[in-house]
Fold:
Amino acid sequence: MKSQNWGAYKSKIEERVQLLKKDGYYLEIVFLLSVVLERELKDLIFMFEEVSARELKSINIRFCPQNNPLLAKKEQMTLGRLKNYLNIYCDDENIMSLIGSFNKIRIKSIHRLLDENIGDLEEEILNFQPKFYTLMERLVDIEIELINKEARVK
Structure:
């Protein structure tokens, strides 16, 4: 998700989340927010790669992560792998912790649903929702920093 579209995108997502919440579809909220976070992480990683490549090119170092088969397939990476890859570029422990916390909820909701107490899981989802938006705002702040950095490098 590109930062210039975040405001409109957040309002559309928030509207949908509120409808799901009102109707008691808490697990579905996790599915929707998972898609949003994955897209944001993929876009942010791409931006980090682009800025890094430009900065390194200015000192005659070639940086091409897209040539590495393990890194080139970001579209196929799980949320956990995206988090680990982002950690190469972003050392903000709070952001990494929030992504990890959300991923644990996602795993419980998707992979271990039958092992969980649904009521407890729904409460965990609802309690994390404000943290999710804080996480997304912090990720967008990083995007803005990268855009400004890229403008200076050019």
In short: The helical segments are 6-22, 26-57, 69-72, 79-89, 93-110, 118-153. The chain has one domain: 3-153. The mean pLDDT is 86.
